[in-house]
Design a protein that fits this description.
Elements (H helix, E strand, L loop, with lengths): L11 E5 L2 H4 L7 H7 L15 H15 L3 E5 L2 H4 L8 H16 L3 E7 L5 H5 L7 H17 L5 E6 L1 H10 L10 H23 L6 E13 L5 H19 L7 E13 L2 E2 L19 H12 L6 E6 L6 H20 L4 E7 L18 E3 L6 E3 L1 H12 L4
Parallel strand pairs: 1-2, 1-9, 2-3, 3-4, 4-5, 5-6, 6-8, 8-9
Antiparallel strand pairs: 6-7, 10-11
Helix pairs in contact: 3-5, 7-9, 8-9, 11-12, 12-13
The structure holds D-gluconic acid (GCO).
The site of D-gluconic acid has 11 residues, from loops.
Length: 397
């Protein structure tokens, strides 16, 4: 093995899920309502998901047995605070058991405080385009960290606020299903405010753990790259999607970089997949080299002021060999970034399990573990064995 294939000592290896995508029965949030709304764009309701609410110990044990050292998951606000100001000790105790199971299995719990879902009662009084949602989120975070903080390994504040805003208020594909530029901008302002203000709340503990934002990034390309209109359009979109968030993370412990593909923009707008480039079930291009491109951009944009962690990268595919090739290429890119001096501290594969892929239902399969939808039986895929071996070796074998 050449030294080029080795990751630095202490490089972290994990997999990720989110509460609504795996727990099952999360009927008290805006997504469940959205899945069942008349005319919903959702292909299927989340239903029992992967029943992880009951099967968490098995999933964490599998994550550990494969060779990972951390598991990123989210806590569900609508379970912890099912009505305004009513906090459920039973739900908080459940998450204490989940985190205790992580520690028993030698897995660091990487806990996300908001991953796409918001309680119905919050949305009934506004939602993320309304400033009061920020105060409500801060109160939820304070109560949750008070009950759970001593067990947290790493905390992610808000998962991909840029996606929640653009899908919920720009494209109308996520709840609240609106297409309204002013609300989209208001939601972004509130998410920026929520991240800034929740960091000290989480830092106040109990516990002592790194805190960061997790941002959806894409390899933005202007086509052609010397066309001023294309470049201008691409830069305006990237400012809304990425730069305004990158502007506020410089003092954080890390930035979570989450990347799946590239975005090509011409003078008249989005271009979609390029002829000859394979596409995936979600419609975008197979483009594993996007991860390195985004790590480089995050690093240069923030002037190297914040360490990077890949908190999501992966591929929804029925072809598990294609998954291995995707991750192999993406990880080769990570090694290249590290060789250039970029401080990348870990890689988290999305996802541990085949799970509920939001509006796409259960069709895209991101898991390194297959989940039988009828029996909930888990079966490790070859990609899980392969990536686990990479994690154990801390090297791209
Ligand atoms: C995300 C989403 C995940 C998706 C994944 C695959 O953070 O983008 O958090 O929930 O399932 O990105 O599309």
């Amino acid at each position: 093995m050449t030294s080029d294939t080795r990751f630095p000592d202490g490089f972290r290896w994990g997999t990720a899920t989110a509460a609504h995508q795996v727990e099952g029965g999360n009927w008290n949030n805006d997504w469940w309502a959205w899945e069942h709304a008349p005319g919903s764009p959702c292909e299927a309701p989340s239903g029992d998901a992967c029943d992880q609410w009951n099967r968490y110990d098995q999933d964490i044990a599998l994550c550990a047995a494969l060779g990972f050292d951390n598991y990123r998951f989210s806590i569900e606000w609508s379970r912890i605070e099912p009505e305004e100001g009513e906090f459920s000790s039973a739900a908080l105790d459940h998450y204490r058991r989940v985190m205790a199971a992580c520690h028993v299995h030698g897995i660091e719990p990487v806990v996300t405080f908001h991953h796409f879902t918001t309680p119905r009662w919050v949305v009934a009084e506004g939602g993320w385009h309304t400033p009061s949602t920020v105060d409500r989120f801060l109160r939820f975070a304070e109560r949750s960290v008070g009950a759970l903080g001593d067990l947290i390994g790493t905390a992610c504040t808000i998962n991909e606020p840029n996606i929640v805003s653009v899908m919920g208020y720009g494209l109308g594909l996520f709840p609240p299903g609106r297409v309204d530029r002013a609300e989209l901008e208001a939601a972004n302002v509130n998410f920026l405010d929520a991240h800034r203000r929740v960091v000290p709340v989480l830092k106040a503990g109990p516990g002592d753990f790194a805190v960061g934002l997790t941002l959806s990034m894409a390899d933005y390309q202007a086509v052609p790259d010397d066309d001023a209109d294309a470049v201008g359009r691409m830069e305006r979109e990237r400012r809304m999607m990425e730069d305004q968030f990158l502007d506020i993370v410089g003092d954080d412990d890390f930035l979570g970089v989450q990347v799946y593909s590239r975005t090509r923009i011409g003078p008249a707008g989005h271009l979609g997949p390029e002829a000859g480039v394979p596409t995936l079930p979600m419609g975008y291009e197979y483009w594993p080299q996007s991860l390195a491109a985004c790590l480089r951009r995050a690093w240069s944009y923030t002037s190297g002021s914040v360490p990077l962690v890949v908190t999501e990268n992966g591929i929804g595919t029925d072809d598990d060999a294609q998954r291995i090739e995707y991750v192999r290429t993406a990880l080769g890119g990570v090694l290249g970034c590290i060789a250039e001096g970029i401080d990348v501290r870990g890689y988290t594969y999305w996802s541990l399990l085949d799970n509920f892929e939001w509006a796409f239902g259960y069709r895209p399969r991101f898991g390194i573990i297959e989940v039988d939808r009828a029996t909930q039986a888990r079966t490790v895929k070859p990609s899980g064995q392969w990536l686990g071996a990479v994690a154990r070796a801390n090297a791209l074998t």
